[in-house]
Design brief:
Helix content is 36%, strand content 26%. It has 181 residues and is an alpha+beta fold. Strands 3-4-2-1-5-6 form a six-stranded mixed sheet. Strand 5 (130-137) and strand 6 form a beta hairpin. 29% of the residues are buried. The mean pLDDT is 91.
């Protein structure tokens, strides 16, 4: 994967397959501490301790159509290549949290990518799921939450093309205030 937004997309798709109804995505960029943290938390079915301990193995997957699961192993590789690591916490019936750390200034750290497009793709394809996104960059924080949008839309589908155009514009403006695309 070329950038971190694609890793985020993959991990969130895992959460959706695990019956998550709410996914929290948090990105913290702290150049002063030389750290980038990406955290994806869900309220899905969670994993047993046995499965949790094996998910970094590419030959471990819960998919019925594949014999390999590369999402978490590739994220772990990307983190390790840039001086970081991946932490996974999960409990059956309570959801999963995947937290990846990266050395912010490391020459091999992948770029963040176009996070706004990743969010838009998730929202358009999964209108029944609530996504909460928080991004902190050098002590400036922005937040986006589909539950708030759905409340304001009063029954208009969040994946309505006109609503998606408004969300795209809002994300560009909101993320732009902290220098993120």
């Amino acid at each position: 994967m070329e950038d971190l937004s694609l890793h985020i997309l993959d991990i969130v798709e895992n959460a959706i397959r695990a019956a998550a109804q709410h996914v929290w995505i948090t990105i913290t960029e702290d150049a002063a501490r030389d750290v980038l943290v990406v955290e994806i938390k869900d309220d899905g079915v969670g994993m047993s301790e046995n499965l949790k301990n094996r998910v970094t193995d590419p030959f471990t997957t819960t998919k019925k159509t594949s014999r390999v699961g590369l999402g978490i192993p590739l994220l772990e590789q990307a983190a390790q290549e840039s001086g970081g690591e991946v932490f996974i916490t999960s409990e059956p019936g309570k959801g999963t949290t995947v937290r990846a750390t990266f050395q912010y200034s490391h020459i091999d750290r992948k770029p963040l990518g176009t996070i706004s497009q990743t969010l838009l793709t998730l929202i358009a394809g999964n209108p029944s799921i609530d996504f909460s996104y928080t991004h902190t960059r050098n002590n400036q924080t922005v937040h986006f939450d589909t539950a708030e949008w759905k409340h304001e839309l009063e029954g208009i589908p969040i994946n309505n093309p006109e609503v998606l155009r408004l969300i795209k514009k809002n994300l560009a403006e909101t993320l732009g205030t902290i220098g993120v695309s």
